[in-house]
Amino acid sequence: MASTKVVKVPTIDFSNYEELKPNTPLWESTKIQVFEAFQEYGCFEAIYDKVPKEIREETFDMSKEIFEFPLETKVKNISEKPMHGYMGMIPQLPLYESLCISDLLNPQSLQNFANIFWPQGNQHFWYVLLHCFYLFYFLIIIIFKFEKKR
């Protein structure tokens, strides 16, 4: 009889991000947690209570809204990078769809993504997207000290 193993995505608490100063024990332990989560799972759940509940809920609601757009709109999200852009309509995975923003740390890429779905603009979506951008920016640029080469 096969056993089912439940995999839980790790959670990392960023509620005290103001205290994340380089070379402190909190900084180092958080860096290790993020690195290990990415290495083992490819993702993690970020706990950050400073983002208002409304913004979190709107983020998920808008994600649902984007996937309700017609296929003709979603396929406009293209990328030169493999596994980026729109992925869906895969016969072996009929319920699978994904939309990826190719250069998440570039605000122009975020704007281009938003314009696919709302060519006339959607300020609220843009606001929510920028919140996510700054969280990712903090994680990748600040914590890991990566510098984007231009």
From TrEMBL:
Bilayer-crossing regions: 125-144
Cross-referenced Gene3D superfamilies: B-lactam Antibiotic, Isopenicillin N Synthase, Chain
Pfam family, one: DIOX_N
MF annotations from Gene Ontology: 2-oxoglutarate-dependent dioxygenase activity; L-ascorbic acid binding; metal ion binding
Taxonomy, superkingdom: Eukaryota
Domain called Non-haem dioxygenase N-terminal: residue spans: 9-89
Alphabetical UniProt keywords: Iron, Membrane, Metal-binding, Transmembrane, Transmembrane helix, Vitamin C
Name of the protein in its database record: Non-haem dioxygenase N-terminal domain-containing protein
Species per Swiss-Prot/TrEMBL record: Solanum chilense
